[in-house]
Amino acid sequence: MRRRRSNALTAVMVLMLIYTMLPLAWLLISSTKNSSDLFSSFGLWFGHGFHLFDNVHAVVTYDGGIYLRWFVNTLLYAVVGAGGAAIIAALGGYALAKYDFRGRRLLSALVLGAITIPGTALAVPTYLLFSRVGIVNTPWAVLIPALASPFGLYLMRVYAADAIPDELLEAARIDGAGEIRTFFTVSLRLLAPGFVTVLLFALVATWNNYFLPLIVLSDPDWFPLTVGLAHWNSLASGAAGSGATTVSFYPMVITGSLLAIVPLVVAFLLLQRFWQSGLAAGSVKQ
Amino acid sequence: MSTKRLIPAVLLAVALAACGSSKSTTTTTDEPVTLTFWTWVPNIQKTVDLYHQKFPKITVKVVNAGQSADEYTKLQTSVKAGSGAPDVAQIEYFALPQFALAKQVVNLNDYGAASLESKYGKSAWAQVNVNGGVYGYPQDTGPMVMFYRQDVLASLNIQPPTTWQEFEAAAVKIHAANPKNYISTIDPGDAGGVDSMLWQAGSRPFKTVSPTEASVNLGDSGAGTWSALWSDLLSKKLVDPAPGWTNDWWQGMDSGKYAVWIAGAWAPGSISSTIPDTNGKWRAAPMPQWKAGDNVTAENGGSSDAVVTTSKNKAAAAAFAQWLNSDPAAAKSLNDNGLFPATTALLNDQSFLDSPNAFFGGQQANKIFADSSAHVATGWQYLPFQVYANSVFKDTVGQPISNGTDPAAGLKAWQQRIVDYGKQQGFQMTTN
Asked: What is the pTM of this model?
């Protein structure tokens, strides 16, 4: 069947492309400007002089390299948090899809219900809970909530139901493999595209996580990049009068933001074939 | 995880001798102490390092836990929770009464603060005094000054206004020459800015009568004077009700769209670090007066450093905070950081007053700042919950400002919100 050409669709896609790429272009261009240029030149074109390397230098050296510390923190929260979330979602989704046990329907319904609760609404109760336990202002307060991804669990359940034929599991059992062995050697490979999809979702969510770390962390040494950059931004604004500053924060905030999105872009580019195949999984019965 | 070591109080008599205060009971041991200091002053590590050189046994950990209201929220929750609070915290003058009355900061009279009165300017000292106790060491002040663009005013042959009537006349001229330009902006979200203007106009809207009683009157004669003028300026579109510290505002400051900025003496640091290509184009002048020949100013911003009641090293914390805000080397270092000092030593220092400021094209601007500081009107107070009051400014007074209508109605609405909140919090509220 020949695909139909559509100029209208192309036009719409171009508009979509411009809409999504415009902020990125602004970010790239603004990162080359110093403070003077930021406020005296056109937003989408370069100013006088190219200051990208100066800005990057300022970002990584300010306050003893706190930005790099924030970067490492974000990597920690993302890898451990998102990685952990994906593994737990895979295990849980697999169990819900492939095993029959009492309360299975109820658990599935609860998980589905949990997806509807916005994370922001849970942030304050989570803080109070952690405060009681005494883990506030530690990395655990950020990692533990990140490990629970109801959306990931649901996604994996649906994917596992379709991607792993029951006959395969039966064959594995007949051959004498235990359940854990079956999971790791047989099922996990089949689940790979779904797993990577959940991983990427969780990665984006933890990388961009702002509100929860803002509440539970007060020591800047443990901030992720989101909170750290917001911090610098408020210093740049010098609110409430005691905003005396002799440091140019605006270029640092902008360049810091640019550096912060690089790992996500890299991750998506490297894992994109999994992402593309995972999205369409289960849509057509093969 | 916090690595604060909880070792019982260490006090160095040396520190006190150096600061010249008379200390009460002191114990001197050689055990090292770690203090946590919450502050948002950028680059204050340099000043703190001077302290480390002098007193190597005391380590001060500088933590930026947020700015202004963000820090205050964290401070309150951590003091209530009993853990996670710092030893010393930067608290702006408007928020200090709140912490003092809630007994979350220490009365520094117990650490000999009363003898330091002569070291600080009058307005600074007045702002750390709450109900007879001293609750913070003044760190910096913000005496109001009028900053104007020399190039913009000169091009229109306008003399810098000395009275508010002249201010309005200049506003008319500027706006007539180019409708896109304004003499100045007024930020609909900045309670502190309007408070300072009310202060200068003679209004005394807020009073903390006792730890359980407060009074608010945003309709007194000073407030009336202020709102009459600004209602005129806003309705005739002679000032731009643009929020400050935004991209548009900075662009306007850079391009000369706004010719004047009336703010505290800390402002030049922000301008020179954000729009450095305007260096040399600004000049400082006294604030416009309501009566020709008067010299009445107000404060805008400024912070103190207070000792938190949950601190396990109160004496050491007090000694550090005192050093930071009265030692000459420390004061100089803070001043280099853009903070305008609160100490009489620096305010009266001839070389400080005479030093030409490149930012102002070589003008000896410190003279104007010091003069403003010496003429700050007395009697101003803040509410015991000023942080809350300021947070609802935008919804009440900010509305008519943005819309260009009479701010007096907004002041009334603000007063009502304050009274309602105060009653809700258990205060006895009066509106005389």
From this structure: 0.81
